[in-house]
Amino acid sequence: MYIVTAEEMYEIDRYAIKKGGIEGKILMDNAGSQVAQRIVQTYDTNRKMAIVAGGGNNGGDGFVIARYLAEYGYEVTVFQLVADHKIKGDAAFHKQCWLNTSDKLTHVTDSHQLKQRLVDFDVVIDAILGIGVSGAIREPIRSMIDVINHLPIEKISVDIPSGLPANDGIHVDQVIQANKTYIIEAPKETAFCEDTSIYYGEWETVKIGIPQTAYVKHSSKKRWCKKYVRATFPKRDKYAHKGSNGRGLVIGGQLTMPGAIVLAARAALRSGAGLITVATVKENIPIVSSSCIEATYHLLPNLTNRLTDRDLEAFEKIDAIAVGMGIGREDSQLLSDLIEKLDKPLLIDADGLYHAKPLLEPLLQHKAPVVITPHYGEMAMLTDKTVPEVKRSPFSISRQFAEKHQLYVVLKGKYTVITAPDGEQIVSDQGNAGLAKGGTGDVLSGILLTMVMQHKELLSALANGCYLHGKSADYLVEEDHTERDLLATDVIEGLSQVFRTLS
């Protein structure tokens, strides 16, 4: 499933009309009929339906929905919230189609009048404003949206809740708080931003016949799902051996945080790595070895000194490195040595991200891929922005950072945004609130380390790793756990169930 900005959706529509030969009025009819069918499947015909229509294509969709719902036997009234001259083109065509079959069209000019009209209805279908919103909502529509929000009736939005921008990073003024949104063709960026996704309520997409090639040409973002995982997940060769399944290195674990590397190492092994070496201080070895007996170990005198020739020689055999889990924030030369002296894929997480900030220029010279896995707070630190700014613009900020520093960004959250150095993006929305616990990020790093070693294409490797991590939590909460008691160690053990669903 592709994710689009407003500009991309306009180009996709134009492509469907010009290259696909589908007239705009046909696309509009397809959209309205598909939304109407979904409504019929959910609501009984005894529910009185009010459709509030604005200008533009969104209003046109509303007239189509009205016509189809009336044919299905619903009592439907359309309330037009704009002047006649603002309804043009395909929308005007479908308005006339509605008037050819019904006289239930009422012009409403102010919020007080709208409130009086809507109190007799059970459901209001929001077809006021489309994806082109940016900034403040003008009166009287602003007050009308407020009236709708305060009415104790079911609210359904068409394509996007009115007042909400399609793109991330745009100021939100007044928005319909929908109970359900039927998104036309492709979800918009704001469906995956923490501060704006709440306006959609439950949502689903409806397809209206736009050719797949339109998305390939005009969108660089996808929502990752099982179909993509199965298509990209590497098959294990029956003649595979431990070396061919990846030799990974996990570096970290200061004295007060040995559990971080235990979790990362165990997750990497459970994800299918052939060999995992844990590099940590001597005092941690008894703790780590008793919890992860399948790993091997490399002793470091501390986590701050430069790497010795002995260290570098041992690490040359490694296929990829994960560093930062439990490493602490004391001044350290460790990360700079990994960047300068070892041309290995490098995944940087947790405290490693604080050490990485002054090394962003040297990271550009690193000959192997670099992956960073920040949460919102760490991304704010790396970009000198605030956490609210990162939450408001996860796509834009991730893309700018990845392109500027030529690395992969896994911005963790309810909706994890994964970005490649060329700006291509994937959203992984598996997982639940049970992952909001210490250690789950270390588990993700271990999974990603294995995926990096076993995939040819790095972006799909990271997307698959996030899928495994989130889906494990989902399965565990469905069956044996709750979001309250789920632990990071449970997520590791739950991976086997996810793998079984992919076979």
What does this structure look like?
With 503 residues, this protein is of the alpha/beta class. The protein has 2 domains: 6-219, 3-Layer(aba) Sandwich (Rossmann fold); 226-502, UDP-N-acetylmuramoyl-L-alanine:D-glutamate ligase (3-Layer(aba) Sandwich), CATH 3.40.1190.20. Helices cover 43% and strands 15% of the residues. It is built from 20 helices and 17 strands. A 10-stranded mixed beta sheet has the order 8-17-16-15-14-13-12-9-10-11, with helices on both faces. A hairpin with a 5-residue loop joins strand 16 and strand 17 (425-428). Helix 5 (111-118) packs parallel to helix 6 (141-150). The protein is elongated. The protein starts with 5 loop residues before the first helix and ends with a helix. The model has no long low-confidence stretch (mean pLDDT 96).
Give the strand tally.
Answer: 17
Oligomer: single chain
Which CATH class of the largest domain applies here? Alpha Beta
Distance between the termini: 22 Å
Helix content: 40-55%
Category from helices, strands and their pairing: alpha/beta
Gist?
The chain has 503 residues and is an alpha/beta fold.
Sequence-ordered SSE layout with sheet pairings:
Elements: H1 6-18, H2 24-42, E1 49-53, H3 56-71, E2 76-80, H4 89-101, E3 105-107, H5 111-118, E4 123-127, H6 141-150, E5 154-158, E6 180-184, E7 202-206, H7 212-218, E8 221-223, H8 226-232, E9 247-251, H9 258-270, E10 275-281, H10 285-291, E11 296-300, H11 309-315, E12 320-323, H12 334-341, E13 346-348, H13 351-356, H14 360-365, E14 370-372, H15 376-383, H16 387-392, H17 394-405, E15 408-411, E16 416-419, E17 425-428, H18 440-454, H19 458-479, H20 488-502
Parallel strand pairs: 1-2, 1-4, 2-3, 4-5, 5-6, 6-7, 8-17, 9-10, 9-12, 10-11, 12-13, 13-14, 14-15
Antiparallel strand pairs: 15-16, 16-17
